[in-house]
Each structure stands twice: as C-alpha cells, then as structure tokens.
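job 3f2a | input accepted
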Amino acid sequence: MLRAMLRDLRAHKGRVAMTLVAITLGVAFVVATWVVSDSAAETIRGQDVRGDVSVSVQIAEKAPELTAADKDRLAGIPGVASASGVTFGYAGLIRSDGKLVSARPDMAGTGWDSSDRFSLTAGQAPGPGEVALGEPQAKEAGRVVGDTARILLSDGRSLDATVSGLYTYRPLGEPVPSVAFGDPAVLGNGFARVELAAKPGANTDAIAAAARDFLDPDLRTVATGAELTEQAQARADDSAQSQRESLLGFAAVSLLAGMFVIANTFSMLVTQRSRQLALLRAIGATRRQVRNAVLVEAGVLGWIGSTLGVALGIGMGLLGLVANGGEGITLSVSPTSILVGYGTGVLVTMVAAYTSARRAAGVAPVAALRTDGSFGARSLVLRTVVGLVAVASGFIAIGLTLRNDLSTTERIVAMGGGIAVWLGVLFLAPVLATAVLRPVGRLLSRHGGPATRLGVRNSVRDSRRTAATTSALMVGLALVCAFATLGSSITSMLSSSIQATVPAAASIVHSPVDRVALGTDVLEKVRSVPGVTKASADRYTFIKVTHNGSTSPTTMSAIEPDGLVQPEIVAGTGDVRAGAIVGENEAAMIGARLGDQVTLVLDPVTSITTTIVGLHKGMEGRPLFYVDLATVPAKFRDSTVTSVYATGPDPAAVRAGIEQAFRDRPDVVVTDRDGVIKEATESFELLLSLMYALFGAAIVIAAFGVVNTLALSVMERTREIGVLRAVGASQPLVRRAIRMESVVICAYGGLLGILVGVGFGAVMQHAMMGQSLWEFSVPYEIIGVALVGMIIVGVLAALWPARRASRTDVLAAIATT
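job 3f2a | predicted structure (817 res):
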C-alpha cells in the first residue's frame, strides 16, 4: 500500500512541485540564519587570543578613569612583572574628501604601546607627532604610510600627524580603535584599562585577588587572561544567538506561510484520491495504515524539500556574508544548522499534513463506489466558535488597556489581545470568505460576464479551501501592513515630538554620528556667532533610574530652564528648576507619579535625587527625563552635549554664520528642524524596508500556494471544465474564468491582510509607544502598493493553471469518472 501511494506521488510531480517550493524556501531561511550567525561567532572565536595579558583591570561604564597612581599600585602587586596603561578617547579620522570615516569617533583613538594588541602590517610604530591607522579605516580614509592624516579631538582641536604604519587589532572586548597615537598623552593622562603581565610561575588568580582588594568593585572590573578569553567566546556566542533570534522570526513567518500551502495541498490531494483510499480500505487497509501512509508521503516531501532548502540556505548565507563585506569572515556550516534545517522541514510538513492524514484515514470503503471522488462538506461550527471566542477575548483585552500610561504587564496584555484577534480572524476565514464573496458574486453576476461569474462562484464553492489559500497571503501581507502602520505611526509621533520640542526657526548643530557627543567647544562657539541671541543644548545620555527600590535603564537630558528645548507637557509643570520632567509612559513603566522622588544614576559615583514635577509626551529615541542643567555636575555639562539649538532675529543669517564657523569641522552637522526630522525618520524607514523585504518571502511562498491550489483545483474539475468546453465555452473564456478566480482569492486575502495588519499595527504602536490606540497613522502608500501587488499576483499565479485548463481535452474530460 505504501509503495503504491509513493508511486502515485512520484507519478504526479506537478501536484507537489509548489509544495516543495514552500518547504525549500522556509528551510532555506532557517539554515541561512544559522550559517550567518555561526559564521560571525566563529570569526570572533577564531581571532588570535592575546597571551601577554595575565590580569586586566578595567573601569566600569562611565566610571572615572584609572590614574597613574592606580597603575603604580597595581604594578607593585607581588608577582606582577609589568603594568601597561591603555588609553581610549575621541579621535575623528578625516577622509580625503573632508568627511569623517564611518567608525564612531568617541572611542576611536588609543595610545600606541608594545603590547600584542597591535600587529603592524605596514610601516613602523608611531613616535611623537605620528600615528598608526587601522587597516580598514586607512583604506576608507585614503591614507597610506607616509601620508599626513588630519584627526579631530574631543575639544574641537585638530592635529596633522604623519602615518607611520598600519595595523590590525586584537581587542579585549572594546571597540577596535581607528587611530593609535605615538604620544598617548594626546588623549589625556587617565587610563581605561591597566594590563598586568605576571612573572614566570606567578599565580594570576592571586594577582587578580590582590587587585580586587584595593579597588572599588563598583568602579572597576578585574579579570584574568583565561577569564577574558572565556568572556570573548561568550560574547561571540551571545551575539550569534541574538542575531539568530532576530532573523529566525522572519524564517518562522515563511514557515508559517509554507504550512498553509502544504496543508491546503495535502487536503486537495487527499480529496482527489478519495476513491483510491477507499479501495485500499476495501481490500483490507486499516485506518492507521492509511494515516501513516499519508504522513510518510509528507515526510518524503519534507525530506526532499529540506535537502533543497539546506543547500539553498548555505548558498544564501554565503551570499549574505559576502554582501556585508565578508572579507576575513570564516564560513561556518555546523551540523546543528543542517539538522535544524532537516528537522524543521520534515516536522513542519508532517504537522501541516496531519489533518489531511486523519481525513484520509476516515474514508469509508463504500466510498469506492462513488464517482465524484470527494468528501462531504465538513462542519465549520467548532472553527467558527473558536474564532469568535478568540476575537471577543482579544477585543476585551485591548479594551481594558486603552489608557496611554500602561504598565509593562498591561502592554503585554494589549499585544496579546491583538494576537488573539489575528488568530481569531484566521479561524473565521472560511465564514468570512462566504460572507464577503457571495454578495460580491451576486453583484458581479448581474454586471459581469460569464468568466467573472464562473471565477467568483468557483472561489466561493469551497470556502475552507479559499480560506486556507488566502491565509498564507494574509499572514505575510498583515505583517507588512502591521509594521508599516507601526513605522508610519512612529515617524508621525517622532515628527510631532520634535516639532513640539524645538522652535521652527532654530538652527541645529549635531554630530554626523548618531548619539555621539559634540566637541566641548561647540556650544560656546555657537553662542559667539554674530546674530545668535539665544543658544542652548540638549544633552542626551543613557542613565539608570531608581524608584521604590527598583532600578532600570532610561535616558536623560540636562537642559537650561529658559532654553530653546521645551518638552511638551501633559501634566504638572514644565519648569525643570522645580524638579524632573519625565515622559508619561516612562513614569507608568517605573510606577512613578507626580510628586514621587527618583534617583537618577549618571555613573557609578554620581547620582541626582529629585522630585517628578511634570509629565511630558515623550517617546523612545528622545530623552525620557529632563532635569535642570544646574543640578548636573560640571563634568557632564560640556562633555555630554549632543545637540545645540540657536536662534536670532534673522534665522537665515544665524544658519549661515554657524555654517561658516564650522566649515572646516566634519564632526559637526548644521541643519534645521525639518532636517532633524528627516534624518530621524530616514534611518527608521530603511530598517522597515529591510523588514518588508524579509516578510515579502512569506508573500512569495503564498503566491506559489495560489498557483498550487489553482493547479490542483483545475485537475479536480477536469470533467466540469470539459463539460463547459463541450457546451461552447471557448479557451479564452476558460482562461479568464481561472484568472478571475485567482484574482478574487488574492484580492480577498489582500484585503483581509490589510485590515488585520493595520489593526494590529495600531495595537502595536499603542502597546509599544504608549500612544492612544486611535492615533495611529495609516500607511496609504503601502496599502495601495499591496492592493496592486495582490492583483498582479493573482494574474501571474493563474497563468499556468489557466493555460492548462483551457487545453483540457473535451472528450477525455467528459469520460473522466
């Protein structure tokens, strides 16, 4: 029996071709994700491990630097042979076109030393007045050994230094610096890290313990060389895992779309073979044997599709690495990635086919006497009840969380409600198909031609099949529209936030690198520009907030009380002299109210305790806490300036004067409010475009599912099509009818996906951003493109099935029983 069914599967390759495509693409995404993440981790693990560091003493984040006295004390620990101080600081390397290289300048500079962290690849070590450059940055800047490089420092000064050599760098967890100064004092006299080398035979654990004894553990971290190696490997694994988890979400969507295609295909295949299955039952096959035979078919298809998917996934992973600058990347194809690919493909296929296998097992032997080769209609009552319950539960959950100031739990409840509604619509898809398409069919029957009437009626004939076919389209398109709605809403909110906070006439100065502080000279230099009557700064920085014994990360800006930056107040006062102003959503997240005291931890040794006096309509990406500049220690006032705003009687003259003052400073960008809004939204829109492309894979799989459904449906209706041809239907009429059926199916799936997607996007922006549920922005452009795209998909998906249907042999079709 099993051999007979497998032979039947092999004899009808066209029936399973599109199913294989769905499995292959889904598995390929999974394997490609694993290959890319494993390769990145393997590259990091494969880097040379430094053997010259026995113990490392490093400052904690934002902690004061180590001093020369600290270095001397560490050098005096018994067993220490030498102590080397490592300095990091601001160094903006200027390219030949006058712009900064792409590396972040705030940690791009270091002092040259003889440690193993540098490996010269050209030239020689730098001396006073000289620098060595990292190979990639030197190539980007267009500099070679012997050239003069211009480098900007944190206080606005620049220096011209001779490039004495090029190097590659072996880090101990820090970003790879671009510039190594022959004179480390250029970056200051403090150290970010002190590296200790042990004497032969010395106990490194004892040295580390001694270092911990006289250093504040809240300000310094101490690790041995072995611990540093383990930490580097752990960071590589964590990075790979994080990358894998983010990309596997897209692969899961593709697999979900593939499941709908596979389930629909097997449902139709089982229906078409109902007489064959009944004959097997009549000659003695048990229900279990029939069910297992169908599952074995699914397993074989899953294995074949997985084999193709694994090969394609490895290729996609390699292309992805090359496209992202794969030079020096170690390609890693682990056995795990291959096993996950096979396991996923086979499991997804068998799960998708299980319901059809149960239906096949339920075929009665007497069905062999039937001539129509079909199953009786299945009840939709249970499915409809489950769908209605899910939708009702989702709406209740959303209704209970309509406030803007949601806690973390309430945000999760709101998101869960949106997901419940989405799942409910999937369950209700057959009922909705009947409810929507039948009135459309009646309308078109009065105003459309015969091809239109046939196409619409065929799409409504089996609402369960239509729902299964459109569900894959709906999932892919709903995700695109959901994130488009979220993106459009965030863009709109970000624009509104900037417009409400910054005067329209202000000229704005900021760094070309996002969230990098400006030079300490910028604010005063702006104030000295002729025509500037008022200038103030925004000091965006990451801090921690403590309230009621709980500490969480947040963001803060120290502003002038009468400055140009004025947050949009929704409750309380906007006078920062009276206390802190916090975003209303942030306040809800930490459980704080007006009048509550909070402690803002700026660094391990500096904190501010203040009272919340106002709530503002803030959002992620903008400061959540605003405090009076006077309450912030002096060391933070100039070193954390991220933006400067300036106005005067003649805004155009102010803008021109500032541009002239900074004409030779590539570390400074001069723009206006509209320019800031454009910069803020462009990077976000680029991320959304990438997500659309990845979710588009699900839509491609769904399109193959439409082709598969139509092709199998044509085979199922061979006799019907033959009768139509016999009574006078022309080949063009049959082709138009199949095309119309395809367009109706795709349009229905597209409309359902758009409605669900926009609704879920509104819930996402409400839950994630804390904005009103009704303040979402509709992405009309994406919706228009989606509708046109669905019609195009419908037409293209019908080309092969329509051609096949129109060429049906009339006499052979009528003779089919």
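job 3f2a | Residues 512-667 form one domain.
job 3f2a | closed
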